[in-house]
Amino acid sequence: MRTSEKGILLIKSFEGLSLVSYPDPGTGADPWTIGYGTTRGIGPGMSITNEQAERMLMNDIARFEPELDRLAKVPLSQNQWDALMSFTYNLGAANLGSSTLLKRLNAGDYAGAAEQFPRWNKAGGQVLAGLTKRRAAERQMFLGAA
User: Please, which residues have CB within 8 angstroms of residue 11's CB and are 6 or more apart in sequence?
Assistant: First the structure.
């Protein structure tokens, strides 16, 4: 399965766009981020164009799609895939892989999986309003309501 335009827009809406690199908001240090949340190979003082940001986003999504495909053992709707891609894009495949969300999903408990999204709203041990909103939007999309 591939990430739809709706899924890409969800990721973009929460990642935001920065053409100049910035440190992790939770720690003020690594990982450095640029574009729509790209962190691989990013350091202080970097800048990019809009076109580079788009390309980096699509490269990151292409890198995560096989990971999500490998981790999810049950059939997914497009909305479920897109919600899980946003989650994975933000938190990484390792976090999805070790999550109760994935365990419930792979057990066929889609409703139970959906209820796990809100638990992932912290960075540096602190609840962040932006993550709370993102997880609510992902949950809503996962349930087919977005």
Answer: 3, 36, 37, 57, 61, 85, 86, 89, 90
Residue 24 is predicted with a pLDDT of: 76
The pLDDT of residue 146: 53
Provide the CATH number for the domain around residue 53. Answer: 1.10.530.40
Strand residues in 47-143 grouped as ranges (E):
122-123, 126-127
**Opening angle at CA 113, ends 129 and 124, nearest 5:** 35
The 8-class DSSP code of residue 98 comes to: T
Q: Name 126's Cβ contacts closer than 8 Å, sequence gap at least 6.
A: 26
Alpha-carbon distance of 106 to 102, in angstroms, equals 6
Give the pLDDT confidence of 5-60 residue by residue, as tens digits: 999 999 999 999 999 999 976 666 678 999 999 999 999 999 999 999 999 999 99
Mean pLDDT of the chain: 94
Domain count, the chain: 1
**pLDDT mean over 107-116:** 98
So which residues are the catalytic ones?
15
Residue 96 near residue 69 (C-beta atoms within 8 A): no
User: What is the domain extent for residue 114?
Assistant: 5-142
